[in-house]
Specification:
Length: 385
Amino acid sequence: MARGSIKKEQRKDGPRYILTVDLGKDPLTGERRQRRFTYRTKREAERGRTEKLGEIDKGTVVDRSNQTVGELLDYWLQTHARHHVRPKTYECYEQTIRVHLKPGLGAIRLQKLTPDQVKTFYADKLNAGCGKRTVELCHRRLSQALKMAMELGLVARNVAQSVNPPRARAKEMQTWDMDQAQRFLEAASGSGYGPVWAVVLTTGMRRGKVLGLRWRDVDFERRVIHVRQAVVPVGGAVQIGPTKNGRSRAIHGIPASVLTSLREHKAQQNELRQLLGAWPDHDLLFTSAVGTPIQPRNLARDYDRWVKKAGVPRIRIHDQRHTNATLLLQMGTDPKVVSERLGHSQTSITMDIYHHVTTRQHVEAGDRIGAALFGTGEKQAASNS
């Protein structure tokens, strides 16, 4: 709790009453912080003490500080981000701050930072060739750190909130049709990693989660795969950890042909394990040739190889997830089921992402009801209107 003491000083022009307010330790440096206020009468000093202590309790008093933006960003990384995000996410945060924010804004005194300086920084980054997505990430990290500075009483406001960053356009979704998906799977059946691509296309799982699957997560009898962990690249290595939200989920109805391929893959993996003698105890479905987790970049090379062999358009690995959802919706699958299989928290998220599919289904439904009520010429009339 904040404290304030009053001392009387005798000066040439008369007595003065000095109010000293203890603001506690500086959260960035650990040094003690104090503010001094001068009054002509003791009554004014006592009234001032009541006002200042009240402002401190409300968090509206900001002490003068020489801390820089760079020091705040480092402090935010170490005390907040490191303990609240996954290692891969932390690595991205650190890179954004080290490569972009600190060189551009780091030397500015935190309490002197203005919206105009932030806006100019964004413009300079764009003019230097940085993408809008990079600038948007700079804005997010800066705003998060300044929010913490407000909570600590280091600044009176978050100046980043007064600046509108450029918005990056979402990457356009590309998908395969059924024939292209089948051609890819036929070619990719020769992958040395086993039926990894069949699992990706039939479940819609993200790459990291597929690489994190363990044999104990597969229920062959009930045709269920449980998603409980993921493989992520961190600093050139890979780590196995919990999913992003820390929750597990189950994907039901794994195709029988995929389960058969997984049984065959498990038998081959067991033979390789016995042949090598030493095998990491990760229990992973898909591994390197020596049993270690697959590097995502190595999986990407495997993917490119089979895309080329199949002669299908190259889409992102993540777009196989979109392909899975699009094909399911085109086949008339209940959107709620698709949403649950993808792990979306709400069906509305699925509908927003795949509105192009559901819109087409609405048109087809309208054509069917029109044909049923008004005859087979209804659809032709609609196309001519």
